Amino acid sequence: MCSFRGERGTVEKPVRLREYGMFKNRCFKKLCMSDKLFSENPEIYDKFFDEKEYEGEAAFMTDAFEERNDTDGRNCLVLGCGTGRHSEHLADEGFEVTGIDKYEKMVETARSRAEGTFRQGTLPDLDLEADAYDLVLLPFNIVNYVEYDELEPTLELVADAIKPGGVLLFDSVPMPPETQSLHIQTVVEDDADHARIVQMQPGGQHQVRWESIVLSEDVESGFFVDNVDITVYDDDEIVTGLEDLGFTVEQRDSYGDATRPEEAITVFVAVKE
Ligand SMILES: C[S@@+](CC[C@H](N)C(=O)[O-])C[C@H]1O[C@@H](n2cnc3c(N)ncnc32)[C@H](O)[C@@H]1O
Asked: In this predicted model, what pLDDT tens digit does every residue of 178-204 receive, in sequence order?
């Protein structure tokens, strides 16, 4: 649930809210998290992102690695590996993949999909072997899922795990426009229909709230609520954080052709000195 791109085979409609007043007096404190799409429904997560260009993104990552890497191995760590969609393509590219995700059900799905070693773990509280990985990835907004004061420990953790000369690559989303809007995405299949209604709204200097209702014929109740607070950063603070840890950093606005023009992301490609 990260960007709201129209997926081939799905329909997506932005719907302007007519009544802004309904949100005006809402207390913007910590949201009751209920991220059931990740924690309990990896199959439905995959349906909403079925047309995401995972293979193209993995090709971009492989090329970026091969152009810059100065190590002699292909050990790849995927943090926030989700259902293993990048991992399967990276394994095909000859990487020895280790994937870690906060939710066991995501990990189980990744294990069944991709060659590699997958385990549960939550950033930034992970035990990682030092100087062990040639390539480290946090693909699809993973840094945005850690709290603002956890960015530094997360980058430190990664810096420690990556070999000198190795490559770190991840993306981050910016603060969305002030205007509130709803997005509807539908996935129609022969045996079941699924839809989600998502509202995204800024919640302070570094916070964005994504609140969703997911409707699915694959869950017994027919629906579930999916609420997540995410953290947004200034790109400069990420660059400075990485440089302070001894990385040389490049910024891109996409994963090349694999990113749709309407998708606003920054991709950081960093090499550990
Ligand atoms: C948008 S999904 C991306 C998953 C996968 N990388 C992909 O591209 O499909 C975000 C993933 O981050 C995981 N996640 C969220 N917070 C995390 C944390 N603090 N540590 C590790 N994983 C986390 C979620 O469980 C979810 O699988």
From this structure: 666 789 999 999 999 999 999 988 877
Instruction: Classify each residue of 163-174 as buried b or exposed e, where b means 16 or more C-beta atoms within 10 Å of its C-beta.
Output: beebbbbbbbbe
Write out the residue limits of the CATH 3.40.50.150 domain(s) in the chain.
Answer: 54-174+233-272
Report the predicted TM-score, pTM, of the whole model to 2 decimal places.
0.90
Cβ of residue 42 lying under 6 Å from some atom of ligand 1: no
Span from the CA of 81 to the centroid of ligand 1 (angstroms) = 6
- Ligand 1 centroid–CA 31 distance in Å is 18
Q: Give me Rg for the CA atoms of the chain.
A: 18
**Angle of CA points 5, 155, 170, to nearest 5°:** 25
Q: Does domain 54-174+233-272 have CATH number 3.40.50.150?
A: yes
